[in-house]
User: Fold this.
Amino acid sequence: MATQQQLPRVESAPQTDRKLRVLSGIQPSGNFHLGNYLGAIRNWVNQQEMYDNSFCIVDLHALSLATTRDSLRANIRNLANTIVAAGVDPDACTLFVQSDVAEHSELCWVLQSVTQFGELRRMTQFKDKSGGQDESVSAALFTYPVLQAADILLYDADLVPVGEDQKQHIELTRDVAYRFNQRYGETFVLPRPDIKPDGARIMSLDDPAKKMSKSSPNPNSYIALGDKPDEIRRKIKRAVTDSGTEIVVDPGKPALTNLISIYSILNEMTPEAVQEQFAGRGYGAFKSELGESIVTAIEPIQQRLLELDASPEIIDGVLRSGAGKARAYASGTMTRVRERAGLGGY
Ligand code: AMP
Ligand code: TRP
Assistant:
């Protein structure tokens, strides 16, 4: 940890004459859930006018856990449809599939040379996903954060909008970029994580100590984007709550605090205002309105998903044009990297 923390954190020079560049990524691993929407994609959508945005469906990352050809292909398409259905405007942003831009893999290899083994071993996502089985998990799961650094650094991203769980990976990206710049001269922009105070960590509905996750074996622990309205209402009714009857945000009431936070984001209210609105009304009334708020947010997305599913050529075109734009940018960065590092060029 020491070496990582001692590195000076040099910011990219403030640029006032251009929009800040944003890159974010999401894995096509199925079961997109409410946490992904509130922690990530909703912010991508809200900020798309403000920034110069690229969003990447990271299929190479998905290979780090066992998958099959058919499920990967289905998940990529589903995720692309979901991102657009959730409001990302493909005319205003670059939406593309990672493996369509070969430079991601190439830069990943180069960056591995300035990444320390010990740094990767300390990544909490690796510890979680390997579940202590580090003899048998793939080497790709171990080097996963380096590929993520390549995703970000290829596009000179200033900001990376993600949920709280990705903070450590963005810090590693900064350290790796800094080290490359030290060794070979200024090459990469040092990116900053963009983590919102609200929604960055939506917790599981059956255990407020765990984050909502698509890998949970219990489908009642998350709201999936594909859940039918009645299923959503039922899951919220069943969600664990803390003892008592009052609707209050309180560190001693983590389950309720999580539900209030979901309600407050969806209704654009402060948690205090939610508390006031439900004063004296009890859990039943609160949960029923929370269920309705989630249904109201999700139903239009499901409707657009149906339309996109029926016309696959729309998303084909979006991803093809996104890959073209991304490739053009990434090849410029890679030429610079090869030249700085003294690679090839014959
Ligand atoms: P993943 O599903 O792990 O590919 O994550 C995609 C994006 O969703 C990342 O920006 C994550 O930080 C974010 N995310 C995942 N789970 C949650 C959660 N429970 N709460 C908030 N954000 C989340
Ligand atoms: N590791 C991220 C996650 O699990 C996904 C990701 C891959 C990503 N490359 C990225 C996020 C680049 C932001 C930027 O959610």
In short: The two ends are 40 Å apart (CA to CA). The chain is about 55% helix and 5% strand. Residues 26-27, 35-36, 39-40, 162-163, 165-166, 200-202, 211-212, 214 surround adenosine monophosphate (ligand 1) (CB under 6 Å). The first strand starts at residue 21 and ends at 26.
